[in-house]
Design a protein that fits this description.
By secondary structure, the protein is of the alpha/beta class. It is built from twelve helices and twelve strands. The protein has two domains: about 100 residues, 2-Layer Sandwich (Enolase-like, domain 1); about 200 residues, TIM Barrel. Helix 6 links the parallel strand 8 and strand 9. The longest helix has 26 residues.
Length: about 325
């Protein structure tokens, strides 16, 4: 299987429209299997061990039949990076066609965060607001923010630890979504989320694929939201398959992040605030245009080999996956 992955491997650089958590170009590796294309795109600083679930997810996408869908359209939210220009905010929101839920990145300067939210409310007065902190705040910082922000749908990963999240829940009635606390756990199924998390955030690649994400959702029996990890249309299409297969989907999903990219490997549009379940095939002309150098391609091939040897080979063998 490893030879097959490396044999069809393409690596591209996707420029973003704006700075997204210091990312202005997203390198992704894609390969083709019997079930379609898989995407391996852990962020560049991730270790081989941290990249294991990302490669498992990509292999599952390319070689394993996905679960049967229960819905063909997925309601999605807009994702707004930590930008502060009202003009830039308006332009970016306009690229999320028909969306009525906006997730706003916060966690830096408090006043700038509040101003960014106020700007979105002025531009989209009927939109639901949710915020994402990426675990950057102390309990006191999160509590202070929530006392000033006004009504929001939920706050995603305001603090880094379960203990901090429990303390915050004692101070505020705002719903808390758990992201990093789950996907960065050594075993996401062994956490005690009681009193700490109201919503489980599911990201296919960091969790190790659709099957693992569905297992986590079933285990915790909490409301879920599905989100992306700033992937190409191929990775997003796999997130859509997860969202389509879940028995209950209570929140708009953060799968519209292709709107943050200046270029993508395929077109996966947002129409009236929704995205349709579809098979995505990259466009050859686009792949050629945005391909990385041979040096970068070889770097990614080595990364895949090392990640494979770090634990993916054993997982694939245990699952009985084959070409």
């Amino acid at each position: 299987m490893l030879d097959s992955i490396l044999g069809s491997l393409r690596v591209v650089a996707l420029a973003t429209k704006t700075d997204f958590r210091s990312v202005t170009s997203r390198e992704v590796a894609i390969f083709e299997g019997a079930m379609g294309w898989g995407e391996f795109s852990p962020f560049l600083e991730y270790s081989y061990e941290e990249s294991i679930p990302w490669l498992i997810s990509a292999i599952e996408a390319a070689f394993v039949q996905p679960p049967a869908p229960l819905r063909n359209e997925i309601i999605v939210n807009a994702t707004l990076p930590a930008i502060d220009s009202p003009i830039e905010i308006a332009q970016l929101l306009d690229s999320f066609h028909g969306i009525t839920v906006v997730k706003i990145k916060v966690g830096g300067d408090l006043q700038l965060d509040l101003d960014r939210i106020a700007c979105v409310r002025d531009l989209r007065p009927k939109a639901k607001i949710r915020v994402d902190v990426n675990g950057l705040w102390s309990v006191d910082q999160a509590s202070h923010f929530l006392s000033q922000v006004g009504e929001i749908e939920y706050i995603e990963q305001p603090c880094a630890t379960l203990q901090e999240l429990r303390e915050l829940k004692k101070r505020s009635s705002v719903k808390v979504a758990g992201d990093e606390i789950i996907r960065k756990a050594k075993n996401p199924l062994e956490l005690n989320l009681e009193g700490a998390v109201d919503i489980v955030m599911l990201k296919v690649a960091p969790l190790g694929g659709i099957l693992r994400a569905m297992e986590i959702a079933h285990h915790y029996s909490l409301p879920v939201a599905v989100s992306s990890a700033l992937e190409s249309a191929i990775g997003i299409s796999y997130g859509l398959k997860l969202a389509a297969a879940l028995p209950h989907l209570d929140f708009a999903c953060g799968l519209g992040t292709g709107a943050l990219l200046a270029v993508d490997v395929a077109n996966l549009p947002i129409l009236d605030g929704k995205m349709k379940l579809s098979e995505v095939r990259p466009e050859s002309a686009v792949l050629n245009k945005i391909a990385v150098s041979n040096e970068r391609l070889n770097w990614w091939k080595n990364r895949i080999r090392m990640t494979w040897n770090a634990g993916v080979a054993m997982h694939v063998e245990a699952k009985g996956w084959s070409i």
